[in-house]
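User: Can you fold this complex?
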Amino acid sequence: MNKKRVLVTGGTGGIGQSIVERLSGDPRYEVSSPARVDLDLESRESIDAYFSEASVYDIVINNAGINFPECIEDIVDKHIQSSLNINLVAPLLIIQKCVPHMKQQRFGRIVNVSSIWGVRSKEKRTLYSATKFALNGVTKSLCRELGPFNILVNSICPGYVNTSLTQRNVTPEEQEIIKKEIPLKRFAEPSEIAESIAFLISENNSYMTGQTLIVDGGFLA
Ligand code: NAD
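Assistant: Here's the predicted assembly.
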């Protein structure tokens, strides 16, 4: 059996680790998740260098992302650049590198890991929402452009997930308040996000493309 080659960015993070574990345990996939020293998403040179060696992926999961929750007056230039580069420009460039092979194969699956703050927003999410709304725009446009080549492009929008990112950005007191607002009364486990992604990239998903799939325990409802 020809294994499908999968690229997962941010594979050392809370959600990324779960995605890598879930897919590595599936004999249909050969999973690559480069460390930042090999693929630094803030560096155009690093992206070009990485893909000059390896651009043959059937499936791309743009998972890496950062969030600097700051009031508008406190946003620093460095955070603007990092957020744009890591959350938006790098996913776009990675897709650009991988699409020629996918078109040739007439098969491809792309999942952009966005956020509920890519469809709604809240205070101190200006940068994060700007990049995640834009990433969902990338998904919508590419669904149209790449659909004729059997390349399916979706965004997944997790709500609150039990990860260090959430621990860093949401105080324990806020967490308790938010959990009361979530119909399922708890945050997601990273494995639950990985499971949704596993469906989106699988051949079981033959018709869902251009979507922003919200996995939030019903929070936004
Ligand atoms: P995390 O902070 O645990 O992991 C982030 C990953 O991105 C790490 O592997 C890190 O090394 C990588 N990364 C950061 N900067 C990089 C760079 N310059 N080059 C290469 N890699 C870089 O975050 P997470 O919670 O696992 O989040 C994963 C994705 O899910 C992100 O896109 C995030 O926005 C999204 N998300 C997370 C939550 C949540 O509650 N944790 C909710 C909604 C969406």
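The radius of gyration is 17 Å. The mean pLDDT is 97.
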